[in-house]
Amino acid sequence: MTAVATRGANFDGAGAVKRTMMVSIHQQDDGFAGAFQVRDDRDATDKREVHGASCGEVVDALAVVTAIALHPAEEAASAPPASFAKASEPAPMPPERRLRGSTRWFPPRSESMPVGAGTLRFDLQRSFTAYAGATVGMIPSVVMPRYDLSLGVASFVTTPEGAQRISGPVLQGRISGVGPATYRSADTTTDIAGFSFGFDLCQSPLYDTRAWVVLFCGEWGGGVMNLLTKGADGKQIQSKNVGFGTLNLGAEVQYNVGSLFHIGAKVGGGFSFGQFSAERADGSRIFGSSSGSSSPALSWSAYALLGAGVHF
CA-to-CA distance for 192 and 195, rounded, in angstroms? Predict the structure, then answer.
């Protein structure tokens, strides 16, 4: 009140409508922020927000705004231009280190959201994660190691009031190394290795950049597998590359350890489209993912992975 009174404001104006001043000051990561609003029995002014490096700067700026509201004509003529601009113009919203939100399963095609005066901020939360684990089902009776490098992107919107939400689905892409692994029969060995890729659209019921992230994803992908078959004497019988496609559903959970690092796990499964097979020199089949027809085979596969990474 003293800071306001020194600027010529009158708290007891005769005949004035009863007004209530709503003032708040709170500390943020990079300083202090304050808000001011005047309400009476019929109306309310727009909320004014100010930011400063110290609490004293915010108090002075709020005092200017309050004095203008109580005695606008006189204060507008005498207030220093720099102070008036700082109090009345929307200040840039300081970046929040923590982002929280969730996606929706059935978002509308278009949507309107009312927001108050201030700055509407957009953030991209990005994560890189290295995973290691195993996949089964692509080659009969063989557990194959798998190594993933995954990139995820979530688009956040923050309103001037501080409400946060994710705009659209969470997007992911990955590249993977599969193998090496070996299929053994009585008279042959087949060494198997390859790579794959995938693109995911994910729904997130919980996304907190300082705690848990939960994702449910649908993925389309593909890759190439090399199959090298040798006889019992070690001589090469066959070598071929097989292209394949994948359709998978998966679940992923991450825990953010501080503002930079996270650990995670993911599981999933689906269908592989490709003719994974090996044959002897006489043409007889050693193994195969189909009955031997020339059309692409459809087989199931599943995976489980653990990993760690960074987010920013």
Answer: 11
d(CA 210, CA 100): 8
Closest C-alpha among 297, 277, 284, 296 to residue 139: 277
What is the rounded end-to-end Cα distance, in angstroms, of the chain?
43
Q: Cis (ω within 30 of 0) for the bond into 180?
A: yes
pLDDT tens digit sequence for 19-48: 677 778 877 776 778 887 777 666 666 677
User: How many other β-carbons are positioned within 10 Å of the β-carbon of residue 105?
Assistant: 8
Q: What is the pTM of this model?
A: 0.67
- What confidence tens digit (pLDDT) does each residue in 198-241 have? 999 999 999 999 999 999 999 999 999 999 999 999 999 999 99
Helix (H) or strand (E) holding 57: helix 55-70
> Contact 139/161 with Cβ under 8 angstroms?
no
- All residues at 6 or more sequence positions from 246 whose CB lies less than 8 Å from its CB, including other chains: 196, 198, 219, 220, 221, 222, 223, 270, 271, 272, 273, 301
